[in-house]
Design goal:
alpha+beta, Tetrahydropterin Synthase, Chain A, 34% helix
Length: 185
């Protein structure tokens, strides 16, 4: 009777070894079948697609986006891809000076905030309003409680409130706000 108890333990080990081998083979087979990923950035858009450094790029064929070499005899014409027109969604980022203030509750808690504003590239006058935007944000931050900015949803509400204030101050020129640093002490 004692022999049957020890045999069951050996069967469990064999089962685990077989499951491990099957999982390893499946993983290796899947990795072998998938196309290789290169670190050369071939899957990323080229600089020529954005009109940056297009003069340093080889001429690209319209068919495959591969460089045509001077020695290629396949085509008599060399066609190049024209850079796309400037995007209407082009943006610029303007950093506000660091904001340090005490928050509303508890009064002994200090907040340090670094933000950047995202505006349309053709918008002018945002830089001139940075001081007023900073003052508006300090005024708002002095009224908040620490419980209002706890957790991911609190951080999202803070970002939305600061964005609303920035849009109001600049008459809608600000598209987004990026919180780079938020420290409570």
């Amino acid at each position: 009777m004692a022999k049957s108890g020890t045999g069951a333990g050996g069967g469990e080990i064999v089962g685990i070894v077989i499951a491990t081998l099957l999982a390893s083979c499946f993983g290796a087979g899947t990795g072998w079948l998938l196309p290789p990923r290169s670190n050369s950035g071939a899957d990323k858009p080229s600089a020529a697609a954005y009109g940056v450094g297009a003069s340093s790029q080889s001429e690209l064929s319209l068919a495959g986006g591969k460089p045509e070499h001077a020695g290629d005899q396949g085509s008599s014409k060399s066609r190049s891809v024209a850079p796309p027109p400037p995007s209407p969604l082009a943006t610029k980022t303007v950093a506000l000076p660091t904001i340090m203030t005490a928050i509303g509750n508890p009064h002994s808690t200090w907040l340090r905030l670094e933000v950047a504003l995202v505006a349309a590239a053709d918008e002018h006058g945002v830089e001139e309003q940075l001081g007023q935007l900073g003052d508006d944000m300090v005024s708002y931050l002095r009224t908040i409680e620490i419980s209002q900015i706890e957790g991911p949803s609190g951080l999202r509400f803070l970002k939305d409130d600061l964005l609303d204030r920035a849009k109001t101050r600049t008459n809608g020129q600000i598209q987004d706000i990026v919180i780079k640093t938020l420290v409570l002490e």
